[in-house]
Amino acid sequence: MPELVFFSGTMDCGKSTLALQIGHNRSARGLKGLIFTRDDRAGEGKLSSRLGLVTDAIEARPEMDLYAYVVDELSQGGKVDYVIVDEAQFLTAEQIDQLARVVDDLELDVYAFGITTDFRTKLFPGSQRLIELADRIETLQVEAMCWCGARATHNARTVDGRMVVEGEQVVVGDVNDQAAEVGYEVLCRRHHRRRMTAATARAAALSPDVLPVPPA
Ligand SMILES: Nc1ncnc2c1ncn2[C@@H]1O[C@H](COP(=O)(O)OP(=O)(O)O)[C@@H](O)[C@H]1O
Ligand SMILES: Cc1cn([C@H]2C[C@H](O)[C@@H](COP(=O)(O)O)O2)c(=O)[nH]c1=O
């Protein structure tokens, strides 16, 4: 039975790597997939992993009808056995409905990869619709970690090194990019709530207020 599967997790937990692996294993068996993405860090029409692998992909612009695209491909004699979508959080709710239609009417598996919540802990529209419609939601097994060692469950945004909780929902960026004005860091919920990034935790540990006081 074909499925709409949502592989979700924080930033930097291996989603794009898994997307590339699923595509690789299927193409090794002669299957042909369509790969969509939107706003990958590597640029337009690319699906890239931090492990260094990158592949060409179809840029899923907001106005694009993904169901119609797959139907067009098939009616022009193209072979499509499955569909992969990376950065699925950026898709519109309508586009997720179109993906569900690809599964139900064209009987193709659709594997969607994305983060669920933004830097304010609010759902992205694409992720919300995937949670509503997916046959299966898979949490990535390689867990990203907060600086405290706990499993990272939330994505924080930093601007000039300081964690922020207001701003545009979409700003393409990366974790561990010291040079960028806007950066990201994955945190556990406790430290996201306290707005405590690795840098602020380090600064607090060095502050005289929390240094052990020697006995008088
Ligand atoms: N130098 C490295 N050696 C081993 N694994 C790495 C290295 N750099 C990144 N990774 C792995 O790649 C993961 C990020 O993969 P990626 O597919 O880009 O994540 P996502 O798409 O979820 O943001 C990291 O969690 C880590 O497991
Ligand atoms: C939390 C958050 C992230 N983004 C952007 C930053 C990256 O470009 C992508 C996530 O990519 P990854 O492969 O999962 O690392 O999303 C954003 O625009 N807004 C946010 O709140």
UniProtKB/TrEMBL annotation:
<protein>
    <recommendedName>
        <fullName>Thymidine kinase</fullName>
        <ecNumber>2.7.1.21</ecNumber>
    </recommendedName>
</protein>
<dbReference type="Pfam" id="PF00265">
    <property type="entry name" value="TK"/>
</dbReference>
<comment type="similarity">
    <text>Belongs to the thymidine kinase family.</text>
</comment>
<feature type="binding site">
    <location>
        <begin position="86"/>
        <end position="89"/>
    </location>
    <ligand>
        <name>ATP</name>
    </ligand>
</feature>
<dbReference type="GO" id="GO:0004797">
    <property type="term" value="F:thymidine kinase activity"/>
</dbReference>
<keyword id="KW-0418">Kinase</keyword>
<feature type="binding site">
    <location>
        <begin position="9"/>
        <end position="16"/>
    </location>
    <ligand>
        <name>ATP</name>
    </ligand>
</feature>
<keyword id="KW-0067">ATP-binding</keyword>
<dbReference type="InterPro" id="IPR001267">
    <property type="entry name" value="Thymidine_kinase"/>
</dbReference>
<keyword id="KW-0963">Cytoplasm</keyword>
<keyword id="KW-0547">Nucleotide-binding</keyword>
<feature type="active site" description="Proton acceptor">
    <location>
        <position position="87"/>
    </location>
</feature>
<keyword id="KW-0808">Transferase</keyword>
<dbReference type="InterPro" id="IPR027417">
    <property type="entry name" value="P-loop_NTPase"/>
</dbReference>
<comment type="subunit">
    <text>Homotetramer.</text>
</comment>
<keyword id="KW-0237">DNA synthesis</keyword>
